[in-house]
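ARCHIVE CARD
Drawer: 12
Card no.: 0347
Subject: one protein chain, sequence and derived structure
Cross-reference: see card 0346
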Amino acid sequence: MKELIEISLSMNLLYGPIPPSIGNLTKLTTLDLSYNQLSGALPSEIGNLGLLTSLDVSNNTLGGSLPRTLSHLWKLEMFFIESNVFSGTIPVDIFEHVQLLGADLSFNSFSGTLPLGICRGNKLINFSASHNNFSGPLPEDLKNCTSVAWFVVEKNHLEGKVFEAFGSHPDLMIVDLSGNQFSGYIPENIDETMPSLTFLQLGNNHMVGTIPSTIHKMRDLVVLDLSGNNFTGTIPTSLPNMGYFMISNNNIMGTIPNSVGNMTNLVVFDVSGNRLSGVIPSGLGKCQSLEVLDLSNNNMLGSIPWSLGHLGILRKLQLSNNSLSGEIPSSLRNCSGLEIIDLGENGFSGVIPTWIGGTFSLLRILRLRSNKFTGTIPQELSLLRSLQVLDLAVNNLSGEIPRTFDNFTSMAIRLRDVHSSSNGENNEAMILKKYYEETVVIATKGQALPYSRTLSLVTCMDISSNNIVGIISEELTRLVGLLVLNLSRNHLTGNIPKKISALKELESLDLSNNLLSGGIPQGISSLTFLSYLNFSNNNLSGPIPSSNQMETFHESTYSGNRYLCGFPLLKKCGVPTQVLTPIHNEDDDDDVFGIDVSAGMGFGVGFGGFFFVLAVIRPWSHAYFKFMDRIVKKLLRAS
């Protein structure tokens, strides 16, 4: 065994600690224990392996601090310890004598500064330390890493003027510094200092300045992510034919140049959350590889260009919160693979096209809120079986809620169960999610909240603030996967369906400001996930259900319903309610009033004979009921 040169036990079911006796194998050059279930600390005896050139213990559950004896591995070239639970700081002298080619420290809990010496010998090609708690500036010797091709330190707490730490790196292809606190600007001559760049990701830092006009010279650039910074200026009129252009949440002004249509490889175009104005360029219709078009939260004007109908593989169309107008162009029916249509907070008008229902079989989000749509809600929308979010709120829609809405299959199942048992996404979807995180604002629990990572678990129907009439049909209660239901501020009549208790997943229910009558179904107290409820300003009556979470709601939940009683209202339900129903008797014109009394069985049997006598002896009956009528009226006035 002492003569062993290589141990490669990757992707087995090894568990437990690495034995200290590993240090006896002094002739080892390669040790690969990756993708197992090993635990415990990295034994200090590993420092005895002076001939080791490659150490890979990635994707285990190894933890603790790294042993200082690693500095004895002078011949080490490949050092992969990612996806474990290592913590603490990196020993100062760990790379003092080595000449690394590659190192990956990602997905651990390291703190302190990035290790010095990683560029010793100027041989480093690949370095990754993402998803840790490293802080401070980039290593001073980074400028010496002229051969580095891959430098990834995303999701840490690193800071400093980032490009001052870099020098000239002719072979550098991938740079991911996103999710830190870096500052400074992108140098205008980046096309000369980093001419081979394919991935430049600087998202969610504190970068300033403008997008370099020389960026069009970077012919190999595939991904440019500058989102979540403080960049200003305009979008350069000439851009390289990249695949992912993401500059969301900055202060970019001006218009979107029509030359963007030359980017035929474009997959994601996300310029949301800026100060862009002007019209949507028709040239975007030439980007036939486009899957995501996000122009939301800008100052865009005009209508949706007819040419967008040429985007045959478009999956996400997000144009919300602009000043767009006009009708939805019928050319969009050619984009049959759409999963998200978000046109909310604009000035779109006309009717909701009926062809939406028969075209977009994959549509998950249809958000048209806060526009000027008129007409009725198309019954054809019920063909959207994949629909999870239907938001038509704040328009001028009329008519009734289609009874066929119970066909929304994705609202009729528990999505959290579906996702927990799913086999994951395909590679294409995972790559897209890596570079673009879809975000949709959903009105729930009385406020507008952005959903991104958990969006796939949300189900919502919001038809509030329209002119909808009719009743709440029992068909809606078949959507047992709904989390949010908002039908408020309409003209709905009738009772709250008793079967509303079937909506066990419901977290937010708003039926306020309608003309609903009758009682609140007792079964609503079984909705244990319900944390927001609003029944205010209707004509509801009777006792408020008082068990489970129903006792947690404020009296404003029920205000504007004068005949409701019980906690949390001050009005008590102790006095029986007399229902005065005139009954015409053919023998005479006397009015006989029935009394609705809730009483126990014993009381009913004992008192039944007395009422029988009253019914037989008519003078007694007439006098008694007039007397009781006066008593009940006095009691009602007192309450």
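Annotation on reverse: Confidence is low (pLDDT under 50) at residues 577-639. The first strand starts at residue 6 and ends at 8.
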